[in-house]
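hey can u run this one w/ zinc ion bound, need the structure tokens asap thx
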Amino acid sequence: MARSSIVVLSGAGICPGGGIMAAHAGDSLWERQLLEEVTVPMAYRQDPLRIQGFYNARRRRLADLEPSAAHVALARLETAWPGDFLLVTTNVDDLHERAGSRAPIHLFGELLKARCTECHHVHPWAEDLDFSSCCPSCATLGQLRPNIVWYGEPPLEMQRVHATLAQCTCFLALGTPGYLHPAAGFREDVPPSARTLVLGAEPAEESDGFREHRVGPADSEVTDLVAELLAEQES
Ligand SMILES: [Zn+2]
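ok here u go:
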């Protein structure tokens, strides 16, 4: 029998408050307006400081967030799973890492990394970004941008994700709609015999081709699912 290989795709639905990129009660008016623009590269070219400011505020807010029970359960699954395991996330926060996940793929980048538009190196970055930010590789000033995938830019590490999906025996889409990309495209990549499951807080609005659907709060649903998967492995 083929070695069990799980691919998990996680989305904003497993994060407290719908994720760091969602609108929050404490957002200023300008932050709310910026939510419409921040994923558009043209907006950054026109007014980099304004866009930097939005991401600086989000980056600072990371410290106030804690990993959810769903994050913790997925880290436990990764540790205890006897086969191959790959965690892919659309989230740009570091909550998976803080829960103990080893090396999640951040499809849409990370708030805690900056990329130099001069030399293209990517650096861990915990501070605010502005015109005085200096690239540690080429020492150019003011050319560091958030390492976030914006509209029209390709998601990161897709080759590795596609290759792993093509070999997997189980694909789980958690807190991200199964009928939308990337989950919809990923499901098409998995072998026909693979188990496919999508989990969300509300029933899907459209049919999505996943074999199993679960509806409920992410924390309890993901915790239960992880317990089931591990129990099935032991039996
Ligand atoms: Zn550089």
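Strands lie at 5-10, 84-89, 105-106, 109-116, 122-124, 144-148, 170-174, 195-200, 212-215. anyway lmk if its weird
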